[in-house]
Specification:
This protein has eleven helices and ten strands. With about 300 residues, the chain is α+β, with helices and mostly antiparallel strands. It has two domains: about 100 residues, Phosphorylase Kinase, domain 1 (2-Layer Sandwich); about 190 residues, Alpha-Beta Complex (Aminoglycoside 3'-phosphotransferase, Chain: A, domain 2), CATH 3.90.1200. α1 packs across α2. The protein binds adenosine-5'-diphosphate (ADP) and magnesium ion (MG).
């Protein structure tokens, strides 16, 4: 039986409580069952992300390198296999097998290096932008439509602005509301990765870089420009000139993704405002409270204003 990494146990129980602990108890048995059914042998150390356990395997009889991913059964993890299936390996790892009841997939194995580890900001943005364009294929009916969430986003913005103590200027809030009202409800049926950040882009051989860990939405391809930009926040902190760094990222992403820069900016602005509110209400995975959280929230406020 595989050993589930300690940090993964701690994170899962910390986040999910008793249901998380119960799921973890079953997990080694689930992995064994899937390895047998999909004719795989473990091949190297088990790793994990925030929500998924990753078991490197070899597929019998050819010995093809693959990974078994079992995710925590959360609604946000339902559509990853659908997205992989549509992409068919174009810009993302191949999907070999799926067991939706188990939230499990057998995936093509990429190399261990993530795009985040390359440390070159311009190339991170360029690679992510190009992938964004390649992944923007027509969406099948089953994927959740982001346009159906626009109403909920608007309600949340209005409620957060009312209930939370914040110093966001009215024009920043109004711009976010305008984006939700204007761009939100009219999004096309295009596949969106949904969590496009440099840690979810892996070095590979079949293509230089392949995406993993999609949410699998349908919507505006410019949406994930905001996801990416938000994820670069820590890199912006190291920049001498924050304004310049943010604009360079917008330009680079819009260019590589062949998208309208203004549209990318507007989504990114909305993401920043949502993050500023989310931080106040729930904290972030990297900081649940204290000075560090205050400081990140202030940074999100600054980013939102800069993008307005
Ligand atoms: N197909 C793959 N090939 C090789 N490594 C992978 C693959 N998928 C995931 N990993 C490794 O596991 C980590 C977490 O995977 P990810 O799918 O992002 O999980 P999570 O949903 O928990 O974030 C990745 O950063 C990577 O190191
Ligand atoms: Mg991930």
């Amino acid at each position: 039986m595989i050993a589930v990494p300690e940090t993964f146990v701690r994170n899962t129980v910390g986040r999910e409580g008793q249901p998380g602990a119960a799921w973890l108890t079953e997990l080694p048995g689930v992995v064994d069952e899937l390895l047998e059914r999909w004719e795989c042998l473990p091949d190297g150390g088990v790793t994990h992300g925030g929500v998924g356990l990753i078991v490197p395997v070899l597929r019998r009889p050819q010995g093809t390198a693959a990974v078994l991913k079992v995710s925590y059964p959360h609604p946000g993890n339902v559509h990853a296999p659908d997205a992989f299936a549509v992409w068919g390996g174009q810009g993302a790892v191949l999907l070999y097998e799926r067991d939706d009841d188990r939230f499990a997939m057998l995936l093509e194995r990429a190399r261990p290096q993530t795009l985040a580890q390359t440390g070159n900001e311009d190339s991170i943005i360029r690679v992510a932008g190009r992938l964004n364009r390649r992944l923007a294929v027509p969406a099948p009916p089953g994927l959740p439509r982001l346009r159906d969430r626009a109403g909920q986003w608007e309600e949340e913005l209005l409620r957060d602005a009312r209930e939370l103590a914040h110093e966001l200027p009215a024009r920043v809030l109004d711009a976010a509301l305008e984006t939700v009202r204007e761009l939100g409800p009219v999004q096309p049926d295009t596949v969106i990765h949904g969590d496009l950040h440099a840690g979810n882009i892996l070095r590979a051989d079949r293509e230089p870089w392949l995406a993993v860990d999609p949410k699998g939405y349908a919507g505006d391809p410019a949406y994930d420009g905001g996801t990416l930009l938000k994820s670069r926040a820590l890199a912006f902190l190291e920049a001498d000139d924050l304004t310049k760094a943010v604009h360079r990222t917008l330009d680079g992403f819009a260019n590589a993704a062949e998208l309208d820069r203004e549209r990318v900016r507007r989504w990114a602005q909305l993401h920043a405002v949502q993050a500023a509110f989310h931080g106040r209400r729930h904290g972030f995975r990297v900081a649940r409270g204290g000075q560090r959280l205050d400081w990140i929230i202030q940074f999100a406020d600054g980013l939102a204003e800069l993008l307005t």
